[in-house]
Design brief:
CATH architecture of chain A: Orthogonal Bundle
Largest sheet of chain A: none
CATH class of chain A: Mainly Alpha
Low-confidence stretches of chain A: none
Oligomer: homodimer
Number of domains of chain A: 1
Number of strands of chain A: 0
Helix content of chain A: over 70%
Largest interface: A-B, 49 and 49 residues
CATH topology of chain A: Tetracycline Repressor, domain 2
Mean pLDDT of chain A: 95
Radius of gyration of chain A: 18 Å
DNA sequence: GTCTATACTTTGATAGAC
DNA sequence: GTCTATCAAAGTATAGAC
């Protein structure tokens, strides 16, 4: 079915983007990994590689935020949820030999100055994470500005830790990032209690 | 002179890596930007693009750490130095229309799973920053483990903030990263005083 | 030794057979 | 509508003129 081919192409592209980035991933590589004929890329994505890339970025962004929500729904203690999210990302990294990190981060740095439609797609994903993540922290009593600041610091720590961990093939940076995120969250929650009280 | 050509090639490559990344930068693009004949790349870098890339990564790593030391030598208050370093990086980003970030970060994510010599070069740079940065914080009274943790968190925050800032073409993430770095530093210094006292 | 011309591969994209 | 054959351009690398 056509939809299945489309799905396979999107999945294969996301996988390849994580390992090789946007410019490092060829359309021929993609159709080979998706077991699809070459022409099907342009059938399903008339805009070519750029359109396919943008859809993969947006789709991956949604999937990662769902994972974030899953963990925060399951863990009542926000500090433990924060720790669990970072260490879970680290565990995925480790079991895939430090290959499966965030497909958006790599693409974001590559295209920021060269491909405006794709830059906008990465910016949209990050802003969506920030807005929806901030809403969660507001639910814990944080002021809007404090909640937004905290989630921005999370994303920066997470993406930076992905970079360091993949380069070193070590979880050390992810563990230190987890500790920083927990400390920042604890301080923000404490601050909100002090202000309210 | 031969050395000048070599320098021009290294400078041009570093500049292009920041904007287009490793796979996105072609050798033809490099020699054009450096006003050098094509053959001179292989004359000065017999290992081709890979050797050139590794040298650029190591060289850029040294330059960025020198900048870090310059700022920390000039500012006696460590909290102000931390803030100044992050905001200075943000200012450079802004005046270059969010193009001139860290040439190592982009390359690091691209090559982590595809080019082992280059991955090792990026890992070497990050580890060098961490070791030498930690030495500075130990000088302020931090335990070795605490100093190492703090500088790792800095680098993660900085690289992550570069990513978010370039995607959004906004300094917001860099400003929040600066605040996080200052807060983490303040807490670490306080902790070391408490322990010593 | 500096540089030019070229070889060979792979890229994104398209036209047209079936 | 699915897929194959092919395009022009750009990629890295090399051979050889001067």
């Amino acid at each position: 079915m056509a939809t299945q081919t489309r799905e396979r192409i999107l999945d294969a592209t996301a996988e390849l983007f994580r390992r090789h980035g946007y410019t490092g991933t060829g359309l021929k590589q993609i159709v080979a990994a998706a077991s699809a004929p070459f022409g099907s890329v342009y059938h399903h994505f008339p805009g070519g590689k750029e359109q396919l890339g943008a859809e993969v970025v947006l789709r991956s962004g949604r999937m990662y935020f769902e994972l974030f929500e899953l963990i925060f729904d399951a863990e009542p203690d926000p500090l433990e949820a924060v720790r669990g999210f970072f260490l879970g990302a680290g565990e995925t990294l480790r079991v895939t030999d430090y290959a499966d990190a965030c497909p958006i981060g790599t693409v974001a740095l590559e295209v920021a100055s060269t491909n405006e439609p794709l830059r906008l797609a990465t910016a949209e994903v990050f802003e969506d994470w920030i807005v929806r993540g901030a809403a969660r922290f507001e639910g814990l009593g944080l002021e809007p500005a404090a909640a937004r600041a905290l989630i921005i610091q999370f994303v920066a720590l997470l993406e930076g830790a992905f970079m360091l961990a993949r380069a070193a093939k070590s979880l050390e940076a992810m563990e230190r990032a987890a500790e920083a995120a927990v400390a920042l969250t604890r301080a923000a929650l404490q601050q909100s209690v002090d202000t309210a009280g």
